[in-house]
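User: Hey, quick favor. My workstation is busy. Could you predict this chain's structure for me?
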Amino acid sequence: MFRTRRLAGASVAALAATALVAGCATGSGGSSSGASGNTITLWTHNAGNSAELDVVKKIIKDFNGSQGKYKVKLQAFPQSDYNNSVVAAASARKLPCLLDVDGPNVANWAWGGYLSPIDVSGSEVPLSDQLASTVGRYQHKVYGFGFYDVALTFFARKSVLNKYDIRVPTINKPWTKAEFDSALAKLKKSGKFAYPLETGTGGTGEWWPYAYSPQLQSFGGDLINRDGYKTASGTLDGRSSVEWATWFRSLVTKGYMAKKSGADPSKDFLAGKSAIQWDGSWNAAKNAEKLGDDLAIIPPVDFGNGPKIGGASWQWAMSSTCSNKAGAQAWLKFSRQTKYFVDYAKATGTIPAIEAAAKQVDGYQPGGKFNELVQFARKFAVVRPATPAYPYISTEFQKAAQDILAGADPKNALGQAAKDIDNNLKTNNNYSG
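Assistant: No problem, here it is.
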C-alpha cells in the first residue's frame, strides 16, 4: 500500500516543485501510475548528461521495437531538480512507473512508499553476477539495480613518489596510516606543493559522506550502528570515529590539505600543485591521458580496519503506484543485457557492474590500466547505511565534518551529530513499519 511519508531530511524545496512535476506527469500520461494504457513513463535524472541519456534512449528504442505490447516514454530531468521532483510527485501520487534513484536513497524511498520490490528473475544477467553495491535492497527485498558503480582512489605521479622515497602501494599492500602520514610529511617538507593532498573539500552534499565516511570506517567507526540502525550514539561519536575526526582535522592544521579546495579537485593535481589526489574513478581516463604511464592508481589507505571506499550509484526502480507493473518489469528485465552494461560503462567512464561487461570495456578488462578500479569496487566498497534515515544522516555528517575542518572540537561535533540523528530516529519510530 502506498504510504505518504516525508523523505527524511528532504528539502522543503520539494513543495515548490509540485506544480512542475504535476505538469510533467500529466503531459506524459496523466494517471497516477505514470502510464496511459500500455504506455509506460520513465523518469531519469540525466537531462544534463547526454552520454548517459543516449544509452537510456537506446534501451527504450530497442525495447519498444522488440515487441508491440508496451511502449516506454522518456521524461528527463536535470539532476539538480530530480530528487525534489520525485518527492513532490510522490506526494501528489503522480510518480511514473519507472524511475532511477541514487543508491543511498533506495531504503528511504522504499520505506516512504515510493517504490515497489522488483522481480527481474529470468533476465540475461542474474543479480548474483553484479557488484553487491549495484543492487538496492531494503528489508531483504530488491528495489533497484544499477549498470555501474564508481570507485574512490588516490591518484599520484610515480615519479614524484619515487623522488621522495615513498612506496607505491598495491591492492594487496595498501598504505598504512603511518606510511600515509609519513608520505604527506615528506611532501610538505619538500616545499614543492602548496598542499600535498587534494581531497575535494570544496565539494558539497553527498560528496562528504561518500568521500570521507569510508576513512572513518577504516578507522573502525561508522555513521550509525548497523545492528538494527537504531542509534548513532556510541558509533558516530565513538572512540574510533573521534580518532578519525582528529586525524582529519590535522590534515588542515599541518598544511597537508586545504580546508576548502577549489571547484575542480583534479585541476591542482594535474598542474602539479598537489602530489596526491583523492577522487573518483570518473577522472581516471582524464588523468591517464595527461600523465600516461606516470600515473599511479592507488588503493585507499588501511587505517586499521581494512581499506574502505563508498559503494552504490544510480539504479533503476519501479514505483509503488505503477498500474502496469508487468510492463515496467518487462522493460527492467529487457535492459539487463550484457551489451547495455557495456554501453553504460563506455559512455560514462564508470565501472561495469558485471565482470562480463568489464571484459569488453577497454582499460577495465583483466590486465587493463583501470582494472584496479574494478577490484577496488569489488573488494573495498561499503554500501552507505541501508536505512530510511540515510538522507538525514548524510546531511548531519556533512555538517559535522565541515565544522571539524573549521576548528570545532571533534568529539563535540560528532556527538551533536549523533544526538540529532538519534532524535530523528526517535521521531520516526526508528523508521519501522
